[in-house]
């Protein structure tokens, strides 16, 4: 049996195919991601700091639970999807230790798990301890489910500990890093963004990278990244409308 489509349905199918090919193109997804990051982080101000991060009071780990709020509470799965961020936080901690500094590492939990042994905060702490960070240097803040709430929770921690310098490293995903930095700056923190590949996405000149055939072949991963860029664009717009973030006047 031959499936017959009306002219209108055939046009919609063609449009859907074009959208699919564009959004799944790795080169396009990379350009969209770089554009979003560079629109909200100043290359001139941020890149020198990324190369030489000064001593900070705390390293704040923003997992996917916070940056992509509204998801079902699945600690094990979300930690696995945030593995690169955890490694980035460990790398930042080791860099601070090499400077003779011993910052606290702050992680968060939505406190929806029945068994505290399997909630996200505890699992994150265990992962960080296995990576060499002392348990005494790790603080878990409960009932935190968004980036804005995490900034407020860190402010409370600083007040309780008597920390006045308000210097933090905020570890998030590449795409989420601008919003995380701007949200913490709204609470008067001197926030340095960090993510697994932020230096490459923000500081390196993309025109110097050669385009290979694999950069234009559609992939599921590229579509996922494009979807995250679109989602982050609307999330950041919402934060701006609610005045939950500062504006980056010096951004390129």
Please report which band the strand proportion falls in: under 5%, 5-15%, 15-25%, 25-35%, 35-45% or over 45%. 5-15%
Following the backbone from N to C, one meets helices and strands in this order, namely HHHEHHHEHEHEHEHH
- Count of helical stretches: 11
Helix content: 40-55%
Mean pLDDT: 85
For the biggest sheet, the summary is: 5 strands, parallel
Note poorly predicted spans.
Answer: none
**SSE-based structural type:** alpha/beta
The side-by-side strand order for the widest beta sheet comes to: 3-2-1-4-5
Tell me the Rg in angstroms. 20 Å
For the termini, the CA-CA separation is: 56 Å
Strand segment tally = 5
Characterization of this structure:
The protein is 52% helix and 10% strand. With 252 residues, it is α/β, with parallel strands linked by helices. Helix 2 packs parallel to helix 11 and helix 8 (147-161) crosses helix 9 (177-186). It contains eleven helices and five strands. It has helices at residues 7-23, 26-40, 43-51, 64-67, 75-81, 83-98, 120-130, 147-161, 177-186, 198-202, 220-241; strands at 58-61, 104-109, 138-142, 167-171, 190-194. It has a five-stranded parallel beta sheet, with helices on both faces.
């Amino acid at each position: 049996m031959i499936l017959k489509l009306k002219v209108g349905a055939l046009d919609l199918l063609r449009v859907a195919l074009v959208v699919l090919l564009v959004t799944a193109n790795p080169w396009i997804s990379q350009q969209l991601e770089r554009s979003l990051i560079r629109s909200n982080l100043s290359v001139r101000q941020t890149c020198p700091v990324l190369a030489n991060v000064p001593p900070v009071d705390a390293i704040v780990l923003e997992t996917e639970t916070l940056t992509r709020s509204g998801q079902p509470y699945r600690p094990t799965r979300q930690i696995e999807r945030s593995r690169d961020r955890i490694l980035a936080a460990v790398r930042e901690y080791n860099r601070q230790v090499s400077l003779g500094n011993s910052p606290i590492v702050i992680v968060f939990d939505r406190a929806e798990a029945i068994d505290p042994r399997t909630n996200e905060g505890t699992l994150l702490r265990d992962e960080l301890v296995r990576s060499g960070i002392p348990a005494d240097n790790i603080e878990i803040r409960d009932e935190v489910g968004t980036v804005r709430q995490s900034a407020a929770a860190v402010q409370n921690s600083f007040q309780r500990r008597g920390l006045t310098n308000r210097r933090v490293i905020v570890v998030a995903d590449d795409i989420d890093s601008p919003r995380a930095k701007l949200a913490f700056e709204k609470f008067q923190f001197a926030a340095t963004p960090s993510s697994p590949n932020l230096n490459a996405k923000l500081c390196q000149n993309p025109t110097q990278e050669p385009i290979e055939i694999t950069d234009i072949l559609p992939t599921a991963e590229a579509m996922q990244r494009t979807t995250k860029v679109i989602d982050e664009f609307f999330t950041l717009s919402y934060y701006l409308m609610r005045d939950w973030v500062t504006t980056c006047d010096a951004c390129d």
